[in-house]
Specification:
It is built from six helices and no strands. The chain is mainly alpha-helical and 96 residues long. It has one domain. The N and C termini lie close together (11 Å).
């Protein structure tokens, strides 16, 4: 799957089967379900989950909390449009 395929899956009612929690969280975030997205990554210990966690807090406007999670992920705090960050994260996670 690639980013385009993941975006196309947003026309469905659930994320594609077999997605890791960080990718599933991105899917839910794109669907406007912040709570489900957050629940999928909040207890995950991976850097990938921390990156998505940072994105989620940035999307809600909690930049201080987002900064904490960007540091945990080892990523610089994003500054560009949220859609571009979503695509970047999805591309990196799908390529891993």
């Amino acid at each position: 799957m690639d980013v385009k395929g993941l975006r196309e899956s947003l026309s469905g009612v659930s994320p594609p089967a077999g997605l890791a929690p960080p990718l599933s969280a991105l899917w839910h975030a794109a669907m406007g379900d912040w709570d489900t997205a957050h629940g999928l990554v909040q207890n995950e210990a991976s850097a990938e989950a921390a990156w998505v966690h940072a994105y989620l807090h940035r999307a809600e406007g909690d930049l201080g909390n987002a900064g904490y999670w960007y540091r945990r992920a080892g990523k610089p705090a994003a500054k560009g449009p949220l859609d571009e960050e979503w695509d970047s994260i999805a591309a990196a996670l799908l390529a891993a």
